[in-house]
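To whoever is on call:

I kicked off a structure prediction for a single chain this morning and the downstream step that reads the tokens threw a length-mismatch warning. I double-checked the sequence; it's 198 residues and nothing unusual in it as far as I can see. Pasting both halves so you can look.
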Amino acid sequence: MKILICGVGAIGSNLVRYLVPDLKGQHEITVLDMDTVEERNVTPGTQWYTPDQIGLPKVEAVQFNAYNTFQREIEIRNEKFTKDLTIHDYSLVVDCFDNQEARQAIESALHMDKVMRWGDTRVLHIGFSDQFTFEIEWDEWYQVPTDITTGMDICEMPGAAGFVGSVASLGALAVEKYIWENDKIRVLGGKYHRSFIT
């Protein structure tokens, strides 16, 4: 199966880390992102990057990490996702974007001409909201959240690394169950409780 992972920030980079050792050579993984690794991506420990990778394109850094850690080659697309991007060659698209514009572009592309452009491609969305919840949802039930761009970054909250890793591992489970059993796991809700110290 050919898999495209869109967005390799906190969820996407960890999703790659969990999928690569499980999805042996019979499954091809491609990652798409246009961002570079910044210090804020490394310091909280929520993304699969190291300090020496600051300034590199995220897709190149995650490609290196996948090969260096698991001797697994993955393909990269260092570009922005637009609604005109042709991705019907992929059997599964995993949306790990952290902003409403990019998530909406996936939805627009999917629904613009589903038969001609996407065919049998399936889409799984994995993401956080500013309400400190997360969602792992298949496209037929998915609606782009309206509260994901209001300024709060859950990945920079104290203790968020474990929460991010848990969501990414649940996402990996959803991907693997679909690949192996054609079973669509959905996880809705969950809550990261922010503690305030006064």
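Update from on-call: the warning came from a stale cache, not from the record. Cleared it. Sanity check on the structure: The chain has a mean pLDDT of 86.
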